[in-house]
Amino acid sequence: MTYDLLTALILFAFVSSATPGPNNLMLMASGANFGFRRSVPHMLGISIGFCLMIFLVGIGLIQVFDLYPVSHLILKVASISYMSWLAWKIANAAAPKDGKADGTPMTFTQAAAFQWVNPKAWAMALTAITLYAPDRSMFAVAMVALVFGLVNAPSVSIWTVLGQQLRRLLTNNSRLRIFNFTMAALLIASLYPLVVQA
Fold first, then answer.
1. 97 forms bridges with which residues in the sheet?
2. Residue 80 and residue 111: Cα distance in Å, rounded?
3. DSSP character for 115?
4. What is the model's pTM?
5. 115-130: per-residue pLDDT in tens?
6. What are the structural domain ranges in the chain?
7. What angle, 0 to 180 degrees and rounded to 10, lies between the N-to-C axes of helices 22-34 and 36-56?
8. Secondary structure letter of residue 169 according to DSSP
9. 180: buried, middle or exposed (CB in 10 Å: 19+, 13-18, 0-12)?
């Protein structure tokens, strides 16, 4: 991989990882509801799960879409359904008791598995492999996954910290409910491009 291509990949990884999307919105909600420390497994699940996803997509899964175009539509429908359910869960999260939210943050495994139904993650993975590992060699695919891993971890941390800082403003039930409802609405809004394409 040339220096110019690596620079472009790093920039693409940063912009796509740092901009709002399902992962980042959910991390902001997790930071606000559970704090940074309790959200660490969620953050690690996203970063490691997404790297694994890129690698597996690059070494073969991308060919499934080439061979069976209907599989892409099935993935879109499943993603929209699951994301809508998650938005409902966020919107209806219980109000905190004694300064702590009811429920638990997303686990490492749940966050890693979530990447497979996250439309933004799929778009990022497919675009990254297509543009930065077009030959789909093991080295190129591994390099793309590694760059995303190094760039993604600090990006997701920022969103969690942002949510944690917002927690200071969410000191009563009504403000927290408004915040959770807003996060749910933004999560649904992030599905708009996927719905239009489907």
1. 100
2. 17
3. G
4. 0.78
5. 998 888 988 898 888 8
6. 3-93+102-197
7. 160
8. T
9. buried
